[in-house]
Amino acid sequence: MSRLGRGAFIVFIVLRYGLDELVLSSFQKPWIRLLARILSVGRDLRSPRAVRLREALERLGPIFVKFGQVLSTRRDLLPLDIAEELAKLQDRVPPFASEIAVATIERAFRKPVDDIFESFERQPVASASIAQVHFGTLRSKSGELREVAVKVLRPGMLPVIQKDLSLMRMMAGWVDNLSADGKRLKPREVVAEFDKYLNDELDLVREAANAAQLRRNMQGLDLVLIPEMIWDFCQPEVIVMERMHGVPISQVDRLREAGVDIPKLARDGVTLFFTQVFRDGFFHADMHPGNIQVSLAPDTFGRYISLDFGIVGTLTEYDKEYLAQNFTAFFRRDYKRVAELHIESGWVPADTRVDELESAIRAVCEPYFDRPLKEISLGMVLMRLFQTSRRFQVEIQPQLVLLQKTLLNIEGLGRQLDPELDLWSTAKPFLEKWMLDQIGPKKLLEQLKDQAPHYAKLLPQLPRLLHEYLKQTHSNDNRQIAQLLAEQRRTNNLLQVLLYMGVGFVLSLLALQVWSHMQLY
To answer: I want to staple 243 with a disulfide (CB 3.0 to 4.6 A). Which of 61, 147, 167, 281 is the partner?
Structure first.
């Protein structure tokens, strides 16, 4: 009943804001346009279509707002008026009352807000679908005042999200049971993945931990700034962090006037994305323009500022290696290798012909090479790849859904910054270097170094283990000569194995010693 009630509410909002008319009016056939006019009778649809779409998504709740945020970055796929209006969903969702925010803070820390902060701005500076942000000042233990940002969870989020997810699970079940593509698309698994990330986003302590991990990973890269979390003031409903000063990345003209190298900024964004994905396997997965700023401070001029870490993506070593090989082969236009990787990974049936899959991938990708970003669209490439995947029964990988979403965000962001950006030539050197690091001598030495403590612990125990083995052998019944000879052979084999292990361990230590000296000089 709850799902049916939520479904009825969605239908009501669609009709209330004329979204049915918005969809039907895009068709050219006269009878469909006539149907749209009939459905619009008696409704006030004088507001612009883009405004009605944004307001409807806001009424429908956080899942729909996030969908609108993703769409807002795809100006190549949407009419300009709709893209501009949906951009307001990035950080201008209607805020909830300041009194509720203050009450939430006081409940979390069990103190009046004025006892916690030296100053606290009641008016929020940003409001999103899950939480809103207030600025304030906090006195540190050393007595110094520190500017902070206070993120407060929007009340009543869990029941709304659970209703939407329940409806999505029901619809996924329909697709799984009734659609011929159900097994391949894995709708239940995709919804389960989405469920996990949304519920994680409702725990702000988890978001703070994500930020801390990304901050450690990005140290030394000199491309991005991530706010420091103040752990004494982090609770599931409220987190307090370092306040960041920057210009929203959507204000390109303002950045250009300040002297920021916009093409370099676009290239740095690609490098940042591929570093998080392939080097760390831990990436910011909500990179719409509302969560990204650029620093104009003299000591960090031109660096990205990342905000909002409620949704992060993770990849296993297997996923990273497989994706890197795919991307590298793709950038080299080695479509045969791309086809072979799909078969080796089990993403397509084992009996798929390599040459047919290779030909299909080439037909999709080849027209888009050697073109600047303004002349291509990863959205269109993915759409054509989806059509190809249906023909070859490619199975959807739920763990990569967030990566695909983030890649579309990155491309949309790059298109706004520098339409002349050559995405392929920017990413190819990074991936080739990453692949060399994964399979080259440096990786081997790192693995030996990681295992050295284990070998060092095992080596002193070898004489004792050998003595116990020989003692046990000597005490056995030696009346049967054949058994004794067999045991002696086993002992000799064991000694040979131990000898090889000892030699291998010594050689490993020598190699590490030589490598250490090479690093010093």
So the answer is: 147
